[in-house]
Amino acid sequence: MHNGQMGYWENRSSGAGNNEHTTRAFVAVGPSEAEKAARAEKVAKEKQQAEEAAKAFAAKTAAASAAAEKERQNAISAAAAAGQHQTVPDARNNLNQATAEASRLKTVADNALNTAKNKRKEAIDAVPVATQAEKKYQDLQQSIKGLTQNNNGQYGTQKWEVISSNKEHDHWGYRFYPSGITKAQVDAAQNDAVNKRNAATSLASQATAAEQASLQASAAYNAAETRRQAAQAALASAEQAAAAERKRQEAEAAAAAAAEKKRQADAAAKAAEEARAIAEKAKALQARCTAADKLKSSEIQAVRGIPATAAPFAIPLTWSTASRGGFTLSADAAASLGAFISEALATLSVAVVANPVALTIAGLVLSKSVGVGSDMVPGRDISSMMPGDAFGLPDTAALNKAADQKTSVSMPVRGRLVMNDSGILDVQLVKTNTAGAVKVARAVLDKETGYWGYTLPAVADVPAQTIFVSPADALGANGPLTLSGPVPLPERILHTGDQISAPQATDKTVTPVADDLDLDDIILVLPPESGLKPLYVMYRSPRNMPGTVSGKGQNVGNNWMGGASTGDGAPVPSQIADKLRGKTFGSFDSSRRAFW
């Protein structure tokens, strides 16, 4: 090997006689390593190009198929929508035509694809054939390097040597040694290499053209197949539309038959619903009327609640009467009376007393017969209320706890209702030498009226009484009776100089009262959702109700008081009974004062 070239060395002579020269020449055999590498690289590149062309054709075919499928789906959707407006015969005729056209173009596309595949295979197969022919020609070229061509077109080598001899001397000359390779062989190999390379190049172009024709034929077939499937979808849609139209006509016929029946049923149902609504409204109104009448029963004392946000003496005093509702002070009357009561409570709170004393804070004028001067009648049950915070009562949480535990609250100053000798129902504040224990109770919601109620403790020989406290914003007596919310409160507003009397601001006279006080009061706690203050309630007892003296008494001696503290006590002397018999007193205390 010499310089990467396989071959051999030989000696070559030139000149003659004394001028003969011998040189050493390298005769190459076959291509060099560089030529082999270049040839291998060319073969690999040509093979790669052929394979890439085949792959590109496959990719184009797949892309064309995907695009055709997308277009096909769009066309099918559009055709399905359009088919709703076609007749079934027209749609079927379109499908037959599209099917025939698609079948024809399918055959064309298949033939074109086979042709393209065959041409590409021929082009790929032609590459190594051309390469082999070129290699053969190049090998011949390599073999004749350094050789001489004679007149016969042969390639070989010449040597200077004795070509003949005689007795006198030798004859020298060039002798030709043929290599076996002729110029005709080299030219034939060259022509064969060129022709086969041209054939390979031509086949590659033909394969590309065939592939393009195949793509076009496939596109035409895909379009035809799309039209066929679209026509098929249109036919299905047309058939569905025809079936739907038949059903629609049948349904319309049935609907027409049922329409009048439904109309009549709807009219009957509407009439029944209207009658039901009227009946329910009448029932609800009757229930509301019953609830409103409930406030006017002889067992119910209704009164307006005091808002929790009101100042302690903004609404200082109210009354609730059985069957007649509440008595509420007007703003001017409440202002003046509130100031007086505040000062009266302050006076009594600091007073130190050995025996009970009372201070009258207001009086309610009651008529002596029905319909004369007032809606009030002597003997009718009545209670009076004051806001709990006016007395400095514990907070609502403490009051609720006392109600739950059934314990009492200590009150140094309490109140009572007393009928005086003038027939006026006085509200008095009472201070005793020891604080009194007042019961605490919860009011509960009455769903009929929307008020919060509490039944007062039972008293012998007196009908049971329940106090109903309205929401602060309940409608008054003249309010409309609605179907929801609290019912209107039977209520009368008292103005200054009206049915209410009150001491002068400077008249805070404290008077002694009997030791055996009978105070009937209770602290009433309203639920938080009511938004109302706790109320201090003073209700009447039989001792404070009007009555007429009866009985004859007994003749007694000088020591008739001696048995007052034993047995049933001492009898009333007949001479005193004769003087008091038939007289009417506003309360037991009034009759006792007259007795003594």
TrEMBL record:
UniProt name for this protein: Klebicin B-related nuclease bacteriocin
Pfam families: Col-Pyo_DNase (PF21431), Pyocin_S (PF06958)
Feature: compositional bias, Polar residues: 11-20
Species lineage: Bacteria, Pseudomonadati, Pseudomonadota, Gammaproteobacteria, Enterobacterales
Domain of life according to the entry: Bacteria
Positions of region (Disordered): 1-21
Keywords tagged on the record: Antibiotic, Antimicrobial, Bacteriocin, Coiled coil, Hydrolase, Nuclease
Organism per entry: Klebsiella pneumoniae
Ranges of residues in domain Pyosin/cloacin translocation: 399-538
